[in-house]
Amino acid sequence: MVAMPDEQNPIRMTEVEYLAFERASKIKHEFINGDVYAMAGASWEHNQIFTATIASLFAQLRGQPCTANPSDQRIKVMETNFMAYSDISVICGEAIFAGNEYDTIINASVIIEILSASTEGYDRGVKFQNYRNMLTLQEYILISQDKPRIEGYTRQDNGKWLLTDTIGLESIHQIAAINCQLALTDVYEKITFKTD
């Protein structure tokens, strides 16, 4: 019997083993340098922010050559052999897939992660380190759950990443790569922030 990975105790697999395992699994796992980790469930706040954000992007991208994808879309960074699920990914033009199964994309233009206490370090660290190697990626966006804040990292012509920090419910975060914007009042419409 194969051991089941969890957040703290990964198991080792080859890429072929991981893909076979993942395609048969009822829960999602990420593949990092041969280690397979189970993904944590999402909070109510996370789901409300996700729904508001993808709805906004879907409406803005109607009739455009870009498509917003939910968190079930697996992404592979070919340059580092890293496979993960982002909360939202946007593909511009035709989707390019790794392999023949049409379930793992390799050409995201924008990746959005909704931060939580358990994933923030990973999203800012290992995930972003790997995603930066994806040559098609133009913007990486982090949305806070506990305060009205969106951080956007935009790839510059010299390969460096420029941070735009958008704070406050009255603010609007611009996503230049796909000619869209996220009004924080919309993103956080269903969220009540805790006060200290």
Written description of the protein model:
With 196 residues, the protein is an alpha+beta fold. The protein folds into 2 domains: 1-39, no CATH class; 42-187, tt1808, chain A (Alpha-Beta Complex), CATH 3.90.1570. It contains 4 helices and 14 strands. The chain has helices at 15-24, 44-61, 120-131, 184-187; strands spanning 11-12, 29-32, 35-38, 66-69, 74-77, 82-85, 88-92, 104-105, 108-114, 139-143, 149-155, 161-167, 172-175, 180-183. The strands form 4 sheets. It has a 6-stranded mixed sheet. β10 (139-143) and β11 (149-155) form a beta hairpin. The chain starts with 10 loop residues before the first strand and ends in a 9-residue tail after the last helix.
Summarize the structure.
By secondary structure, this protein is α+β, with helices and mostly antiparallel strands. The chain folds into two domains: 1-39, no CATH class; 42-187, tt1808, chain A (Alpha-Beta Complex), CATH 3.90.1570.10. It has four helices and 14 strands.
